[in-house]
Amino acid sequence: MSRWEATTLADLCSDISYGYTTSAKQTAVGPKFLRITDITPDRINWADVPYCVADKKDVHKYKLKNGDIVIARTGATTGYNKLIKDISFDAVYASYLIRYEIDATKAVPDFVGHILQSSAWYDYVDAIAGGSAQPGANAKQLGSFEFSLPPFAEQKAIAAVLSSLDAKIDLLHRQNKTLEAMAEALFRQWFVEDAQEGWHERPLSSIANFLNGLACQKYPPTDDVEKLPVLKIRELSNGISDTADWATSHVKPGYIVEAGDVIFAWSASLMVKVWDGEKCVLNQHLFKVTSDEFPKWFYLRWCKHHLAEFIAVAASHATTMGHIKRGDLDAAMVLVPPPPVLATMSKQMQPLLDKQIASARQRKTLEKLRDTLLPKLMSGEVRVAY
Questions:
Q1: pTM summary value
Q2: Do the Cβ atoms of 298 and 199 come closer than 8 Å?
């Protein structure tokens, strides 16, 4: 750790400023308007960021540049941040974000961006932002985060290792989106645009088994060995984390979830996903969807096909937490082609799904490697050649 110097985030910045406070009217053209909801743990999906109307002086003042870091300053996402990279278009940022312009003569922006993805950063944010119903932190508080800064050459080497992993992870993510789009296009062509008369119509509930999860608080682990993390809606969205609950592994096999299983969240945030995480126990409010009669791609695509309809049904329920019932699965109809036709379809669809599952598994492996390396590289416990 010799030659590593103590610094703060603010020490490395040429400017720190809050975002665009004027109400930005969304439009079909103009600069992109980066919002707090666009700052997720994974990536900024610029395709989902809206355009806005803004005066030229405001665009100049709030324009994001490559090497800037934007940090969410309020709500449950306080501390979420992203390094701005590879943008060649105008983009401004909203008022609930703070921009930290990294002085490239003081630090490598990519290195600082990775520092702010570490557990040390999020532990710091929790310490300064917690303790109230509405978490939040100001620019001075966030800028006071302290860490050790290696020499420039080592910063570049560390950033190169982590950025290489990030690039591979992002490539796998984009490949899976392409595979998903291909599967959706084939399904729509077969079952919506070119559906054949005479294909059998059946309820969604009849083509697969929808197993509701356990009230896992009733199945606590008895020791630190024979236990598994609990899969809840939060974990289905964000993956298993250190804050996940635990349950005994001695539950019926049907309630064990493995990578590749189809999981349907039928309450609160309705979604259908192929699980890509570690082995875990299925919690209530989630269905594990299986079938002995039909291939996985078939019941997965029909669940996704009816998802928008299910979300609308859940939203119409006058409850604090929208949900669907078994009767809604009965009412959702499915077209079942003759076995030879289904077999021919499977020759195209199953490889797409298999590639998605394999790609997701590889992505998870790389994410685990990156998350293991990150604190070790940033603390100097593991060094890189430079």
A1: 0.85
A2: no
